[in-house]
Specification:
The strands form 6 sheets. The protein has a 5-stranded mixed barrel with strand order 15-16-17-19-18. By secondary structure, it is of the alpha/beta class. It is built from 12 helices and 19 strands. The protein binds S-adenosyl-L-homocysteine (SAH) and iron/sulfur cluster. Iron/sulfur cluster binds next to helix 5.
Length: 435
């Protein structure tokens, strides 16, 4: 999501005549987009600002802007710890970036409002980002209030973009070469966008409409919440061949006691039932997940329940984190688990998750899988692309395959990616979605 947001920030400046440069030493403006989800991400902002300070000392006219969720959550603190920062702006404000930068000429600026109008109505057409595999933000914010999470505070209430706007952006992305679109949202399957004639569209319906667009081979969406996996979305996994059989479905914990304390609104049994239903809809579906270890009050038994859930589900890939105490969230007030315990649990969990991922990748060897080619590989005559499960695949192939899907027989699992041989000329999937 931050990659997408950064591209939209760049767009708002490109529209004003700015041009992107790689080296901060060549820039008139440096914009730092930031993440507040865990303490480590937030602290990185200050070390990065320390680095940028040197550029500002060399060139005092350099404007430094800090955007995103750290700016939203602790903008005043950013300006206190890094007084050389000129502009602080929240994630709902990036369409106003050019104006804020102009204001910075006369003094420090901080704007972290949640405006009534949507930034999406004010942003210029996309000129940054995109590529063969592109992102498209459809939903933002969150009303769930998991007790560990800052998102409802930093991103604000749930908001879905209107369907027409999303389809128009998708068409533009396809015209610029996108063949895969990943729909983004903090809670993407809570999507309920306004459709034609005042109808309310679900994510499942939106995916069906996207599948009708010529030239779009692959659709993904992230991040979904187990509570919002509606029947039509589950069904879409069986009906829409463009919808990739790889789903990120965070579980956070396998213990009902902890899930309740997290206010997750799902329990272990309902999560497992959901996984079963998804696999019944699409049998080659693989899962990725998120887990938190060391949530306040997590005992050894609770943690064992997480390990057993992981063993039961079997993940192709997963992200796991030590619980990070976030100021202002309810869990921050509770007695905390010791860091050494969290570290030990994370090691134990990750060793199982790593093993599952290795097994999943190794099981690809010998199989024929459709690969969407994205560009040249590292060696001459080699192209790289992605499997339906997001695995990088390197193949000896002509560059005419780039932007196309072709079948590849996987011959080798190289740890950091797969290698294989091209089986047939590039093909185009057909739509099977019935609304
Ligand atoms: N909306 C998604 C998750 C968005 S945040 C969902 O509900 O599943 C992305 C991930 O960051 C979460 O799934 C969680 O695993 C992790 N995370 C969020 N807050 C955290 C915290 N305080 N400490 C550690 N991990 C956290
Ligand atoms: Fe955070 Fe996701 Fe929970 Fe919303 S649903 S509060 S984004 S973890």
């Amino acid at each position: 999501m931050n990659v997408y947001d950064s591209a939209r920030m760049a767009d708002s400046l490109v529209a004003e005549g700015y041009r992107r440069v790689e080296d901060p030493g060549d820039a008139n403006i440096v914009v730092l987009n930031t993440c507040h989800i865990r303490e480590k991400a937030a602290e990185k902002v200050y070390s990065e600002l320390g680095r940028l300070r040197r550029y500002k000392e060399r060139e005092p006219s350099l404007i430094i802007a800090v955007g995103g969720c750290v700016a939203q959550a602790e903008g005043a603190e950013v300006q206190r710890r890094a007084p050389f920062v000129d502009v602080v702006f929240g994630p709902q404000m990036y369409h106003r970036l050019p104006e804020l930068i102009k204001r910075a000429a006369v003094g420090k600026v901080r704007d972290t409002e949640f405006p009534v109008e949507s930034k999406f109505d004010h942003l210029p057409e996309e000129s940054s980002g995109g590529g063969i595999s592109a992102y498209l933000s459809v939903q933002e914010g969150c009303d769930k209030f998991c007790t560990f999470c800052v998102v409802p505070y930093t991103r604000g209430a749930e908001f879905s973009r209107p369907v027409a706007e999303i389809l128009a952006e998708a068409r533009r992305l396809i015209n610029r070469g996108a063949r895969e679109i990943t729909l983004l949202g903090q809670n993407v399957n809570a999507f309920h966008g306004e459709g034609p004639r005042g109808t309310d569209w679900s994510l499942g319906r939106l995916i069906c409409a996207l599948a009708e667009l010529d030239g779009l081979w692959r659709i993904r969406y992230t991040t979904s919440h187990p509570r919002d996996m509606a029947d039509d979305l589950i069904a879409a996994h069986g009906l829409v061949p463009q919808l990739m059989p790889f789903l990120h479905l965070p579980a956070q914990s396998g213990s009902d006691r902890i899930l309740a304390a997290m206010n997750r609104r799902h329990d272990r049994a309902s999560y497992l039932r959901l996984v079963e239903r998804l696999i019944a809809a699409r049998e080659d579906l693989a899962l990725s997940g998120d887990f938190i270890v060391g949530f306040p009050g997590e005992t050894d038994e609770d943690f064992d329940a997480t390990l057993s859930l992981v063993r039961q589900v079997g993940y192709a890939q997963a992200y796991s984190f030590r619980y990070s105490t976030r100021p202002g969230t309810p869990a921050a007030e509770k007695p905390q688990v010791r860091e050494v315990v969290k570290a030990e649990r994370l090691r134990a969990l990750q060793s199982i998750l790593d093993m599952q991922q290795e097994d999943f990748n190794a099981a690809m060897v010998g199989r024929v899988v459709p690969v969407l080619f994205e560009g040249a590989g590292r060696h001459p005559g080699q192209q790289r692309g992605k499997s339906p499960y997001g695995q990088m695949v390197h193949v000896a192939a002509p560059d005419t395959v780039v932007g196309r899907v072709a079948n590849v027989r996987i011959s080798e699992d190289r740890g950091h990616g797969l290698a294989g041989t091209l089986q047939e000329a590039a093909m185009v999937p057909t739509t099977r979605c019935v609304a």
